[in-house]
Each structure stands twice: as C-alpha cells, then as structure tokens.
C-alpha cells in the first residue's frame, strides 16, 4: 500500500487538515521534475538547486503547522489530565469522608438507649441514605471511567499523529533525494525533523502510562487485565472481515435471483386462466412496513460507507462508542439478509394464496 493511501486511512478525520500534506508535496516534486531542462548542463543544475530550496521551504511550513498543532493538543491534554486527577481525588476524599460520617452516626444511634422504635426507624433511614450515597457515587465513578477511557483514546490518536507525520516527512524527503539526485532532503530531515518537538516529545507516552496506572490502581484496584480491557483501543484503520464480505456477497447474489423470481411468479399467476384470484393489495399492505424498515437499514449502511470514504467521522458526530460500533458492511449484511427473508416470504405468500394454503401464515 502506498503511503498516501495509508495516511488517508489512518489519520484522525477531524484533524485531517493538520497532517503533512503528503499528496500535494509529492505532486510538487513530480511537477518540478517534469519542468526541468532536459539537457545536462549547468542550467539544469541551477534549476534543481533553486527548486530544492523552494521545496524545503514548503516542508518547513508543514513542520511549523504540525509542531503548532501538536503543542496545542499536548497543552490541552495536560490540562485535561489534571482535571481528571482532581476529580478522582475529590471523589475519593468525599467517599472517605461520607463513609466515616455515616459509620459514626450509625454507631452512636445503635448504642442509644432512648426510644427504641425511633432508633429503629433512624437506623433504617440512615441505611437508606447510605444506599443512595453509594448509588450516586457509582454514577459519578462511571462518568469518570468513561472520561478516562475517552482521554486515553485521544492520547493514542495523538501518538499516532506523531508517528504518521514523521513517517510522512521521511517518505517525501527520501523521494525528493531520489528524484533530484541530491542528499539535501536527508540532511534537512536530520536537522529539522529528527529534533522537532512533535517527534522528540515523549510527554504523550508519559501521559498514556500515567492513565494506565491510575486506571489499574485506583479504578480497578490492581486488576490490570480488566483495566486494559476497558482502555482497549480499536484498530485505527477499520479492516473489514472477510466472512462478513462473503456473506454480504452471498445475500446480494440471492437477491439477484429472488427479485426476478417474484416477477416471474406474479406474471405467471396473472397470465394463468385459473378462476382463483390473488389478493395482491393485501400482500403489499402487509409487507410494505417491513420493507421500509429494511430499506432504511440498507440506505444507512450506504451512508456510513460514504462518510467513511470521505473522511466524515460519524462515530464522533453521533456519539457512538469508538470501541464497539457497526461498520458499513455490518449494516449492509443485516439489511440484505433481512431483504432476502422478505422476498422469500412474499413469494411464498403469493404461492400459498394461489393454492389456497394458509397464505397469512407467511407475513
């Protein structure tokens, strides 16, 4: 797979304008080479020297853009991490304080000698308050778990941003040296990219480790496997399953047979001189609602395909779980499977109606 395609598939769509403009840089290289003088002379050499400077200036602008965006995202991440830590500490402190408070009050009321019935009622009321507190704490803790897991996913995307941009510069500068027959691209990479903040910074890796430690030790109480399962990051490039692709093709092929079959059945019964009449209107009324539902699923799958191929992050827009959501192939597989059942049932309905054999069992 060419790097341009690999970059397009693995970038974070809402940051797409902040990545290295690899395709335009590559087109610029080929455009420079195509316009170069053909004769082996000093004019050709001067042309490539000047073009080399212009191209490296473009690369410098790209590196400034990437460094600026990375610095902004890193600053936001550090601030967000501090807020999450403060929220966790606040939750733990409140939990300790409320637990101690209710325990002491329950202890005093238990050993009180006045008004036994009233004491019984007070203990019941106190226990009910503790249950409410635990339920409330559980809801705040679930929100914090979700926030930590989403923050962890964002850090992985930011780390991927570092890697993709560095690889993009390496690829384009290597292509530059090959086409221009120079070594200035490699030298420029060593001088400007290998020491660039977006590449040299290890703060993102540090934040990832800190989030993992916090989640393991404070959220899951030392259970690493459970914590990492919760923090699991989906593949950045959604690879389609071969089995799903096979079933989708099989259902589509079955539809190509069932649609003409319905037409053949309809024409045959209509052309027959039998005295039996088929209630076509009842069949259409019975089956139209399910048809609309199924066609909606298929069209939604086509929409998801369109969004995915054009860089629209529908997972973010519709607030879906980035770790567990349906791909366009899953939607299309479900829709075509239901459509196959729909056509089989409709065909059987008309056949059973023709032979007067319980037709309304089918729908």
Automatic annotation (TrEMBL):
GO BP, sorted A to Z: cellular response to phosphate starvation; phosphate ion transport
Name of the featured protein = SPX domain-containing protein
Family assignment from sequence similarity: Belongs to the SYG1 (TC 2.A.94) family.
Residue span(s) of domain SPX:
1-190
The protein's UniProt keywords, in alphabetical order, are:
Membrane, Transmembrane, Transmembrane helix
* Keyword Transmembrane helix part of the UniProt annotation: yes
Per the UniProt entry, what species is this protein from, by scientific name?
Adineta ricciae (Rotifer)
Its subcellular locations are: Membrane
Query: Which InterPro entries does this UniProt record tie to the protein?
Result: EXS_C, SPX_dom
PROSITE patterns attached here? Answer: SPX
Its transmembrane ranges are 248-270, 291-317, 337-357
